[in-house]
Structure formats: structure tokens, C-alpha cells
Amino acid sequence: MMQKCRREKSEKQKVFNKRRFLFLQSHFFPMKKNDLYDLVHSLTKSEKRHFQLKNRRQGETVDYFRLFEILDKIEVFDEKKLKNVFPEQVNAGQLHVTKNYLREKILESLRQFHSQISRDALVKDFLKNVEIFFYKELYTQASDELARAEKLAAEYELHTAQIEVSRWKRRLEQTLHPHRYDRFAEILEEQRRATDALQNNLEHWQHIVHTSQRFMQYAAVIPKPEGLPSEPPPAQSLESNILYFNSLYIKNLREGNPEQAENALQKLLKILEAQPARVKEDPGSCLTTVGNLAAFRTFRGEGEAALELLRSSRLFWEKIGIPDRRRPVLKQLVRLLNIELEIYRTAENPAQFEDFFRETGEFVKKVAPKIPDDYLLSFHFQLAWVCFLKRDFDLALDWLSEPLNESRKHAGQPVFRYLLLLNLMVHCELRNVFVLRYFVENARRQFKKSGELAAWEQELLAFFTKTGQSAEGDWKGLRRDLQQRLFPETAPSLVPEEVLRMLDFRRWLC
What is the pTM of this model? Predict the structure, then answer.
């Protein structure tokens, strides 16, 4: 009887501690009003199903679960409507406690659902098990679990975990064999090597940050961190190699050494592809390297070399598999698709890639909400240009209309200037005179917002203005005159090459 009372008292104490924590959290670290809503709507179908199965109680509906179902159903967050559903809690000042409790239950469910989201998370779970076994004095089980953690930490170069593994090895040794000082020395040496590797990573991070500040931000004088040598030490891990070669790439690129910059990326890619298990665990670095190398080759006009790189890389990824569906990975995959689209759309005969353009368009429409804004805008522009080349002007306008309707959102992006000009070109081909006049003035206003007009932009806007004011019989003459102004026979082209890679006006006017 007394044991039962103690157990009930212990359970009550746990509930009290939990509520106290939630109270402190809600008062001293309050959530933003829509944070919980954002968390609920970030859950995938599988994550929601796991949460519901774990938390639904038969015969009763607890408040936090009711709150979850309400937040899941509403499309736009409204705090007032939420309070109307729980008037008794609002009056008692307890709604914020229910919100925080729901948040904790969701995170608890996600931790369980994603217990093997990465090798790092798996090692941490092993170490938690070690701690449990240790305090229950089940030292054999603790040692077995620690061996699993040690193997994974070493295989994936998880230096922080290796330090923690060493700490537990030392504690177990002290408990079981307190006088084995030779073993203590071995464990301390293991911990020192892990600490040195961690320090090596830190120094490589310092170098790439300093290099980026100097060469990416064009800062005049960036003081070097105290004690940072001119060159980083030899890399001791895959992460350090990634940092080193990316730093080398940035440095050579900004100093005008393109061959050395490309060589740095090639060496890094070779290192990464030699460790498929590590790439599968964290595909971001490999995808970024391929994207940088493909973009570099595309910029230099080596489209076929870039395509060959993308093809071989795709075979590599298909072989190892990339289960990661997180947004950063999607962003890198979308970037590669965007590079491939740029190569195909600038080909001499883009019509031969019709299936690729169609499939890309379907993909973009399907995953548009998950695509970063800058890439989404690029897709809209490039697919509109493809439609323009094959004279499918209606479909071109379909791709142009959405970003044009959100001009405030895109006005600061360089691609938006090309999109405005392409829109004028489409309406010019459709002979939409009255609409053309409006869009010319709109484009002029947008251009002025983002900087001065270049000479070639002034010529184009003048041409579109004259076209909108002239009889159709005069248009051929206006086009010939524009061609002479932009591409004079006895002088350099008025339009820079980097602009022609985006919008080939020469191809349009011929």
C-alpha cells in the first residue's frame, strides 16, 4: 500500500514538474503567436499520423489534441478565433500552457519519429542509453552500447561525439577498474586526438569565413583572427577537406585563376565520391560542389562538359540513393535542374529538348511552394524564353504573368529585369499595341527603382515605345534600326555578352 502511495506521489510530482516547466517557459520564453501554427503546418502526412497515433486517447479528447486538430485545419492563423474555441482556458489564463504542452508533445513525437534522421542523432541515442545503463549499474550493457556509439562516431568523424564517448569510457573504467592507469592514459590519448580533429575543423572554418569576407564581400581590409596562420593546417577529416577546397575555390576565382578554381572543385568532388556512405548521410556538400562546378563550366561556355558532369553525378546519386527530402537538399537539386535548363534553352536547336522542357515545367508547377523564390523566378523566365523561341506566345505569357503580378516581391532580383523585357518582346510579337504602351512605362518605372538604365536598355525601351506609337507597316524598319544600334557593324556590340546569354536579342531580331 505504501509503495503504491509512493508511486502515485512520484507520478504527481512528475506532472507538477512538467507543468512548472511549461509555466516558466510560457511566461519567460513565450512563443510567438503563430509559431505553434507554423510548427503544425510544417509536419508531413507521416509525421502527423505518427503524432495522432501516439497521442489520441479513446473515449476522451484532451485539450492539447483538440488544439492540434484545430490548428491543422485552419488555413490562416487567427488568434481571436482560437480563443473563442477555448473560452474557459482564456478566462483562466491557461491557453498558453496548453499551447506549450502541445508544442512539447509534437517535438517529442518528432524526436521519436526521426530517431534515425542522421548518424549524429543515432550516436546521441546510444549515449543516452549508456547513461541509463550506467546509473542502473548494468555496466556490460553500457559498454556494449558505448561500443556501438564509438564505431559510428569514428566512421562518420563525429568529433564531439568521440569526445563524449571517451568521457564515458573513462567513467566506466574508473568504476570497474579504478587502478588501471595505463588504460586511462589510452583513453585520454583518444580524447586528445578527437579534440585535435575538432580544433582542425575550427581552424578550417576560420579560414573559409575569412576568405569569404575578403573575396565575396569585397571588403577593403578584413583583419585576420588572432593566431590564424596564412594557410590552414592539413585537413584531418572530410569536413575539413570540404572547407579547405571550397576556400581554395573562392580564393582562386576572385584572384582570376579559373583553372586553379576548377581544379579545387574537381579534387573535392573526387574525395566526396570516394566516400558514398558519407555523401548519402549528408548529400548537401556533394550537391553544392557539383552545382558550383557545373555553373562554372556553363559560365565559361562549356555547356557539354557541364552536362556530362550532371549526367555522371546523377548516376552516382541513383546508385547510392538520396533519401533526404529536406528543403536545403531540394534547393540544391533545383539549382542543378536550373543549370541544365539554362544549357538546353541556349542551344542552337532547343526544339530537340522539348520533352525535357515539358517535364521541367510540370515539375516546377508541382513543387513551386517549396522552391526558393530566386530559383522559381529563374524557372519562370527560362521556360517563358523557351516558349518564346518556339513562338508559343500564349504559354510564354502564362509563365510570365505570375512573377509580373508580384513585381514588388521580385523587383530587386536581376532576373526580373530580363523578365520585364521578355514580356515586352512577347507583346510586340503579338501586336498588342495598347498593352505594349502600358508595359513599357511599367518596365521603365521598375528599372529606375533598381538602378540606372544601361545604354542597351534605353535603346530597347525607345524601340518598344516607338512600336506602340507607329503603324504596323513601319515596324520592320524600326527592328532594322534597333539591330544596327545594338549590334553595329563597325563597333563593338552595345549589349554585353552576359546579357546575351540571358536574352539573345540578336537571335530575336535576325
Answer: 0.72
